[in-house]
TrEMBL record:
Name recorded for this polypeptide: Phosphoribosylformylglycinamidine synthase subunit PurL
EC number in record: 6.3.5.3
Pathway info: Purine metabolism; IMP biosynthesis via de novo pathway; 5-amino-1-(5-phospho-D-ribosyl)imidazole from N(2)-formyl-N(1)-(5-phospho-D-ribosyl)glycinamide: step 1/2
Binding residue positions for Mg(2+) 1: 82, 516
Catalytic activity, as annotated: N(2)-formyl-N(1)-(5-phospho-beta-D-ribosyl)glycinamide + L-glutamine + ATP + H2O = 2-formamido-N(1)-(5-O-phospho-beta-D-ribosyl)acetamidine + L-glutamate + ADP + phosphate + H(+)
Species this protein is from: Halapricum desulfuricans
GO terms for biological process, alphabetical: 'de novo' IMP biosynthetic process
GO CC annotation terms, alphabetical: cytoplasm
Entry GO MF terms: ATP binding; magnesium ion binding; phosphoribosylformylglycinamidine synthase activity
Disordered: region residues: 208-229
């Protein structure tokens, strides 16, 4: 990828001369889709990002939100999300690992300590060897990096869909903890302050990573694009985490930026531009691990585990002392200036001299054509209840993900009160006497069938996950993934998921405080489905939450949703069996519904809760089943167990009247039957019925673990 002719002409006109090699490469990366959001920024204004708890809105390395609590009101969380899709195709281990490292450093740059990770992963058909190879490598990379740095991976999702055959998605989010005194931003503060690079030495790995992420994957990407993939070292990252913590504790940092896309050039130019300042950079001063690097390589290398700090001159020596204590290098590479010019020298010669704001904000936005997505008609296959149950419950998409999350250390830092495998993780934020619930994911079946409605469903489903554990939404970050936006049908689907996700988050009064856009996820296999990954957090009093597993002692109710009849559009059943249908109707009072679900989850009479989503009621009941507790359930038709309408929760309760009273005027409450003490699931569905025991269900749900 090179600077396009129109961009080259614009840059030349602005500079009044031909750009140098370093300038051309820097503009190419900073004006890429990955950095400048040239195709997506015109759409992103649909998101609401303000609110009474929002401290730092989108535009920084991460968003920051205050935790409402009865304790310390000055407790903040920082949230960020990023994609490492193309790198994870070329090198699944390093691509995924460095995705974790990068998002953790985004949290560090806000003065926050990372306390949790989520991973949302999307691959091709699980039955094919190559997607399984990518899946195994990505999970290994995430577990290696996250476990090594001591940050628990507590939530996420995994989906398999043939639309990801040539382009997997790896979306990773991080949550960190800070407060008003420790908060730092990526906005340079004063001219004359020093710019200090702290971390590992700079090498030639990750060259042109931003531009690489902004083009379709070619057939030879695994070999040709390997130099664009960074190589991480989690042990250096752990040292950087602790070093950053001490620098913040001693109030030595004025502003900070993680070195991610476009390397030092991206981080330092954006830092000074956001403060309305300029920067003077001496590239020779950058500590390097490879001999003979030229100025362009030093400027654009995306070598990992590096941060750039703005430091007052009198504090530079102390910063260097602390970095040395943690076996990290620290180099004074330049200083902030008041002229607004980003100026870099190498071996005494100027290699970059451009307006800092023009570098970061000068890329013209794209005005692209879009085609409205088609709406599917009803065309249902014939199926019987027992075969459909086995197909859906035994699908890799709805099967147990234990093989994944057992590789992650989710207990490190001793905050995880509800671990992975439930609707949402719950962390103990003892500083605020508050439970923080976290949910993450998307469903490509939904957004393939109906991009707008499917994206709304993704938002509602994540909120329902939180509510099922007694929490109400606080904030969210999103990763919006799409194919080549120059194709009108692809851009139409992408626009629809943006509008749908923005709409539901607004309805839920949940500000979207940060995010990432990843386009050009296209390959010789075709474009990916439009995929709006969401990581949402919510809060509750205390850290206890009702379990997902049945107790065997209560009445089973299905709460939430609408009275609209079953619809299988976007369902796992149709994905596995063929056919099409309209997408399920979503409730119009989503905010009131979520608040009511959260309140009922915390009733003393509530014994178990579990949301109904991927795979429908059949999968929800199968997941609640244990060797000692089962369910005897009746539903209206053989379609009902497989309808994936979000905003519904199965509640096991000893006081069904209290639940009905809570939902009066809010949403339907349907009696499903009773929990039993025999470890057997019995379903009567119209004229059909089935009975399975816990061991049979466990065998169906073990497909991933059995295959791998």
């Amino acid at each position: 990828m090179t600077l396009s002719d129109p961009d080259h002409e614009l840059v030349t006109e602005h500079l009044g001369r031909e750009p140098t090699q370093a300038e051309a490469a820097l503009f190419e990366n900073l004006w890429s889709e990955h950095c400048a959001y040239r195709s997506s920024r015109p759409l992103l204004g649909a998101f609401e990002s303000d609110g009474e708890n929002v401290i730092v809105p989108p535009g920084d390395d991460a968003g920051v939100v205050a935790i409402p609590s009865s304790g310390d009101e000055d407790t903040y969380i920082a949230m960020g999300i990023e994609s490492h899709n193309h790198p994870s195709y070329v090198d699944p281990f390093d691509g995924a690992a460095t995705g974790v490292g990068g998002i953790v450093r985004d949290i560090l740059s806000m003065g926050a300590y990372p306390i949790a990770l989520t991973d949302s992963l999307y691959f091709g058909d699980f039955e094919k060897e190559y997607p399984r190879y990518l899946f195994e490598g990505v999970v290994e990379g995430i577990s290696h990096y996250g476990n090594s740095i001591g940050v628990p991976t507590v939530a996420g999702s995994v989906a398999f869909h043939d639309g990801y055959e040539g382009n997997p998605l790896v979306n990773v989010a991080c949550v960190g903890l800070t407060d008003g005194d420790r908060l730092v931003t990526a906005e340079a503060q004063e001219p004359g302050n020093k710019l200090v690079l702290v971390g590992r030495e700079t090498g030639r790995d990750g060259m042109g990573g931003a531009s690489f992420a902004s083009e379709d994957l070619a057939e030879d990407a695994e070999t040709e694009d390997r130099p664009a993939v960074q190589v991480g070292d989690p042990y250096s990252e752990k040292l950087l985490i602790e070093c950053n913590e001490q620098l913040i504790d001693e109030d030595l940092i004025e502003s900070a930026r993680d070195l991610g896309a476009a390397g030092l050039g991206g981080a330092s130019s954006e830092l000074v531009a956001k403060g309305g300042l300029g920067g003077e950079i001496e590239l020779d001063r950058v500590h390097q691990r490879e001999p003979g690097m030229n100025g362009t390589e030093i400027l654009l290398s995306e070598s990992q585990e590096r941060m750039v700090y703005e430091v007052e001159p009198g504090n530079v020596d102390r910063v260097a002392e602390i970095a040395e204590r943690y076996d990290l290098r620290a180099s004074v590479i330049g200083e902030t200036t008041d002229d607004g010019i980003y100026h870099c020298t190498f071996e005494g010669e100027t290699v970059v001299e451009a307006d800092a704001e023009f570098l970061g904000e000068g890329a013209p936005m794209h005005d692209l054509d879009h085609a409205e997505p088609d709406r599917p008609e009803r065309d249902l296959p014939e199926f019987d209840l027992e075969a459909a149950f086995e197909t859906v419950v035994g699908s890799p998409n709805t099967a147990s993900k234990r093989w994944v999350y057992r590789q992650y250390d989710h207990e490190v830092q001793v905050r995880t009160a509800t671990p992975p495998g439930d609707d949402a993780a719950v962390l103990a934020i003892r500083e605020a006497e508050t439970g923080l619930a976290i949910s993450a994911g998307a469903d490509p079946n939904w957004t393939s069938a109906a991009p707008y409605e499917g994206a709304r469903a993704v938002g509602l489903e994540n909120a329902t996950n939180l509510a099922a554990k007694g929490a109400t939404p606080l904030a969210a970050v999103d990763c919006l993934n799409g194919g080549n936006p120059e194709k009108p049908d692809v851009y139409g689907g992408f626009k629809a998921i943006v509008d749908g996700l923005a709409d539901v988050c607004s309805t839920l009064s949940t500000p979207v405080v940060g995010g990432n856009v990843s386009l050009y996820n296209d390959s010789v296999e075709g474009p990916i489905p439009p995929t709006p990954t969401l990581t949402m957090v919510g809060t509750k009093d205390g850290y206890d939450a009702p379990p997902m597993a049945l107790s065997g002692e209560g009445t089973l109710l299905l709460v939430g949703g609408t009275d609209d009849g079953p619809a299988l559009g976007g369902s796992e059943l149709l994905a596995r069996s063929g056919g099409s249908d309209r997408f399920p109707e979503l409730p119009g009072n989503a905010a009131e519904l979520i608040e009511t679900i959260a309140a009922v989850a915390d009733f003393e009479s509530t014994l178990a809760t579990h949301d109904v989503s991927h795979g429908g009621l059949a999968v929800s009941l199968a997941e609640m089943l244990t060797d000692d507790a089962g369910a005897d359930v009746t539903v209206e038709s053989s379609l009902a167990p497989f309808d994936e309408q979000p905003g519904r929760v199965v509640v096991e309760t000893t006081d069904p009247d209290a639940v009905r009273e809570a939902f009066d005027g809010v949403a339907p409450v349907e009696k499903l039957g009773a929990a039993t003490a025999d470890g057997t699931l019995s379903i009567e569905a119209g004229d059909a019925s089935l009975t399975v025991d816990a061991s049979e269900v466990a065998e169906l749900r073990a497909v991933i673990e059995d295959e791998l």
